[in-house]
Amino acid sequence: MGAAVEVRGLRKVFNGVVAVDNVSFEVSEGEIFGLIGPNGAGKTTTLRIIAGMVKPDLGEVRIMGSNPFREGMRVKELLGYLPEEADVYSRLTGLEHLRFYASLYGGRVDETVRYGAEISGLGGDLNKRAGEYSKGMKRRLLLSLVLMRRPRVALLDEPTSGLDVYSSLRVRDLIKRYARENKTAVILSSHNMLEVEYVCDRVAFISRGRIVAAGSPDELKEKYNAGNLEEVFVKATGG
Amino acid sequence: MNFNTVRIIVWKELLDLWRDKKTLAVAVLLPVVSMPLIGLAVLLLSTQQPVQVAIVDEDNTSYTNRILGITVSSSWLVGNLTEALTRSGCRVDKYDKSPGNMTSYDLVVVIQKSFSENATSLVNQASVEIIRKANVQPAVNAESTIISVLSQFSSNISRVKVESLAGLAGLKPGSFNVNSILQPVVVGPLVVIAPSGAPATPIEQIRPYIAKILILGFIFVVSPASMYVVDSIVGERERKTIELLLATPASVAEIISGKLMVASVLGLVSSLSDVASLMIYMYLITLSLGGYFWLVLDLKLILLHAVTAFFTILTTIAIATPFITRTQGIRSAGNIATLVNMIGMTLFFTGFMVDYPKLEPSVLYPLMLIPYTHSILVIQDYVYGMTLNSLIHLSVLIVASLILLYIGVRGISPEKILLAR
């Protein structure tokens, strides 16, 4: 399988603080890739650069062979990006959210909305204003906004952040099922090692802006002689 | 720019705005309430600051001039002054002589000794001293009342004196007119003409006044629109909804343009509300003038005002947007919007006081560099009957607002919006 996402030597500095330093990795079609690290490690900045929202000082990104800063419109059509802590418009219903975002992308809007409604699993609640939703319902709606178009690449920044156990499980299952069915390359950032081990095919540990280890969860556990990914992270970062 | 994308953004913003009843209510009520409220507040507060007046009658006599056969009493003047001042809301204390410390009074009237004798004299003049505190506006109003009473008092004595002298001179009643002696020259009929040169009707005379109120009304329609832009850009960032939107194929320019258009629509709602309140105002004026409301109602002026308001708002928010998008929070963005609004408010207030088409070119032409000057001239030129000039200024305003909009949204990138400092 070819690389859906290619990231080469990314570097970004904000006011003298290095946020991302020499980050490189590749993600194949249908693969779920986890970007793991503590808060402030550089996960969100890396995803924002891949999404074409923040320009890197150095390095290059390719999404299905296209550069997000030179071929922005093409990349936006290929890409689905769920930002960390993204929220909904409280006065719009779930269905209006689906229609609004589907219309922005064009194509078969009704079909896209139907699929979005299906993967959200919100049923009749889609007719309620999103301001009335629980945190888990909001996250499922947001995730369906990103995935309903069946993007070739999905960037999910902390998709289960702040959710309870049941909501987290639903979201994880949705991501896993979706990636398999649609052959979508998923880059998922998290600081929840258990979640990543359950969902991801391969992971990269990021600390202080640098990738300190990368591989499949089993490979990493074997390499670092660790029982779980938390131990791998501690050993890889020298903690 | 893809106009279909802008249309989708506008649809979402309008839906959101329609359900935001509080914002809509403020946009509609602010212009309706503000103008009458200003008038009412000034009226109410001015009556709540009574002026302390002392009348010192140092003369306290009554005197009869035997030659003329006329009598004047200082107590008559005291009575007239007391009645007039009390009617205008002043608190009046009366003294026969100076009570010493007068600092508690805002205004002191001293009827000097020999007032009655001098007032009836053919040689001397009677005088009344007025001592007024500086910087007390109601005291200035009280002073006007006193001067008016004194003028009437003086006029009455003059009239009696002239009639008495005429009798002494042997003139028969009816052979002379007191007014022709007291006021040999008066202002003749005052003719007010319309821009066409024909005599202006009372309705035409109040049209410039209506136009000035319309210009003042711009102040109240620009503010809600600016605050909406602040909320829809910076607020959306704070509510964490903007990043997902920026990731869609909609460009920053399309997103911002859509938001600015809806903000202008909100301003237009304020403007229409402003016009509605003005129509009620005009209706009341026509009732008092005995005219017909539909004669005062100038639909072209109302339409011109609505279009001008829309582009005035677009200009304001287009100027403020590049700064708003680069600020970190709603508070600082709000401050920037207020700063831009202040420039507009200053000019609109001068438009209420000054006839811009009458300004010297050396003053007017530099002012035309500010788009708001054209907003004022659109309305004032129309009322002066210069319809072509009015349309030219409207065209300049439209072009300026679109250029500012283009410049305003051009330099904004997702990174600047997301990572504003």
From TrEMBL, chain A:
Keyword Cell wall biogenesis/degradation listed: no
GO molecular function terms attached to this record: ATP binding; ATP hydrolysis activity
Annotated keywords: ATP-binding, Nucleotide-binding
Domain (ABC transporter): residue spans on this chain: 5-233
Gene3D superfamilies noted in UniProt: P-loop containing nucleotide triphosphate hydrolases
SMART domains in the cross-refs: AAA
Keyword ATP-binding: yes
One of the Pfam families matching this protein, by short name: ABC_tran
Matches recorded under InterPro entries: AAA+_ATPase, ABC_transporter-like_ATP-bd, ABC_transporter-like_CS, P-loop_NTPase
Top-rank taxon, per record: Archaea
SUPFAM superfamilies hit by this protein: P-loop containing nucleoside triphosphate hydrolases
PANTHER family: ABC TRANSPORTER, ATP-BINDING PROTEIN (PTHR43613)
Name the record gives this protein: ABC transporter ATP-binding protein
Protein species of origin: Thermogladius calderae
From TrEMBL, chain B:
GO MF annotation, one: ABC-type transporter activity
Segments passing through the bilayer: 24-45, 209-230, 242-269, 275-295, 302-324, 336-356, 390-409
Key words of the record: Membrane, Transmembrane, Transmembrane helix
Pfam family, one: ABC2_membrane_2
Classification lineage: Archaea, Thermoproteota, Thermoprotei, Desulfurococcales, Desulfurococcaceae
Highest taxon in the source lineage: Archaea
Name of this protein: ABC transporter permease
Cellular component per GO, a single term: plasma membrane
